[in-house]
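lol ok so funny story. i was supposed to be doing the assay writeup but got distracted and ended up predicting the structure for this chain instead. priorities right. anyway since i did it might as well share w the group, maybe its usefull for someone
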Amino acid sequence: MDIQLNYIEQGEGQPLILLHGNGEDSKYFTHQISHFSKKYCIFAIDTRGHGKSPRGDKPFTIKQFAEDLNDFMNEKYIAKAIILGFSDGGNIALEFAMKYPERVEKLILNGANLFPSGVKPLYQWPIEISYRIAKLFSKKSEKALRNTEMLGLMVNEPHINPSELAALTMPVLVVAGTKDMIKESHTKLIYKSLPNAQLTFIEGDHFVANKRPEMFNAAVERFLHSE
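and the output, tada:
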């Protein structure tokens, strides 16, 4: 691994890995770390180029982030974990699970998408416009280059064919907000494409884990304790 990922480790027991969304860091999961560390060993990771994790020289892609996660688990001697990913973190979790299914005990996908058009146009268009503007200045400014990379993750990625999800046999919870930036039909497509999945909608927007932690944590709790 070309970089060391920054992370928060808290609690004891079965490993539960938390993967934040685009442009965020592990602190997004403050309410999940305090709640779930009572029963699990939490690893809340800063993705490459996010939070306190360095950018490194490798590609800034969802697939690379999934490889970073595999390297992290090897480093920490974690053979298998429950993985909870939010937004881009959910997309990383999906890519990881497709490549390393034997390392995933259970999967929680919150506000994930399989391809960019899974995002409602109201949210996707401004991202695409900002991306084009940042790209124009990316050769002259370090900040614009960083913005181009961050926004590029949402404009150009991910690219997952729903039929690929049929190979994932581990239990999966698909969860989104009732007013999520991900289309409801897209969230349902992910759910229907997974052979062993549960679906939950929580009252709120894309950021329900952070804004409605009691409801979100209760839904995750129910899923983790269901057979």
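The CA atoms of residues 17 and 83 lie 5 Å apart. The first strand starts at residue 7 and ends at 10.
back to the writeup now i swear
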